[in-house]
Amino acid sequence: MRETPEELKELQALLDASLSRSTSYLRSIINGERTLTAEQLTQVLTGMRTLALSTVTAKGEPRISGVDGHFLHGKWHFGTARNAAKARHLAARPAVSAAHLRGEELGVFTHGTVEILNSRDGEPAADWPDLLAYFKGFYGDDAFDWDGEVVYYRLHPHWMTVYTSDVAKLTAAPRP
Q1: The pTM is what?
Q2: Tens digits of pLDDT across the chain (176 residues)
Q3: Which residues, in sequence order, are CB contacts of 89 under 8 Å at separation 6+?
Q4: Helix (H, G, I), strand (E, B) or coil at 98
Q5: Which residues are within 8 A (CB) of 148 and not within 5 positions of it... i.e. 6 or more apart?
Q6: Cβ distance 111 to 55 under 8 Å?
Q7: Where in the numbering of this chain does the Pyridoxamine 5'-phosphate oxidase N-terminal domain appear (predicted)?
Q8: Which residues in 29-68 are b (16+ Cβ under 10 Å) and which e?
């Protein structure tokens, strides 16, 4: 777990507020017995998790693709090739939706906007050196041309919910 107490507090407030603003139908599915706390979520979402990421084209058409998601400091982080279609979509329209699903066992659903962490044209995010060290440690120093080939994003969520079919089983399971 990389989250500070303040980050956990912010994440818990987001989870609580998101669920309270949701429809009664969603609240009938996701309740205290079928969700995770911020602390539990950060313990479950370690390492790389595949995200289904939804962006929007210039014509307003939705596009979904898979990305390697890393849940760090209470937010999703992911990368793609600088010349990928999703990179063009995100540069023009930074609103996204992301879902991480693990069968019926876990679903994490997020809506928000992305921040570019390693822009070619501007200053990188203040924490980019630490994040880059994490990504290089995960993928390897020579996995990419880290300066030119890949662009990384942080998803700033304005809505996030978590569903689990069995809190005790999920939180007791060994972390892959």
Answers
A1: 0.93
A2: 589 999 999 999 999 999 999 988 898 888 888 999 999 999 999 999 999 999 999 999 999 999 999 999 999 999 999 999 999 999 999 999 999 999 989 999 999 999 999 999 889 999 999 999 999 999 999 998 988 899 999 999 999 999 999 888 888 865 55
A3: 55, 56, 57, 63
A4: strand
A5: 82, 120
A6: no
A7: 39-157
A8: ebeeeebbbbeebbebbeebbebebbbbeeeeeeeeeebb
Helix or strand run (H / E) with residue 19: helix 5-20
Question: Which of 39, 49, 40 is closest to 171 using CA atoms?
Answer: 40
User: What is the three-class DSSP state of 164?
Assistant: strand
Half-sphere exposure of 153 (CA within 13 A, CB side): 26
Count of helices and strands (H, E) across the chain = 6, 6
Question: Do residues 136 and 144 lie in contact, with contact meaning Cβ atoms separated by under 8 Å?
Answer: no
The first and second tokens of residue 119, run together, are: 């822009």
pLDDT score for 1: 56
For residue 113, give the nearest of 83, 148, 76, 88 by alpha carbon. Answer: 76
Residues 6 or more apart in contact with residue 62 via CB below 8 angstroms: 54, 55, 56
**Coil/strand/helix, residue 29:** helix
What is the spatial distance between Cα 86 and Cα 92, in angstroms, rounded to a whole number? Answer: 10
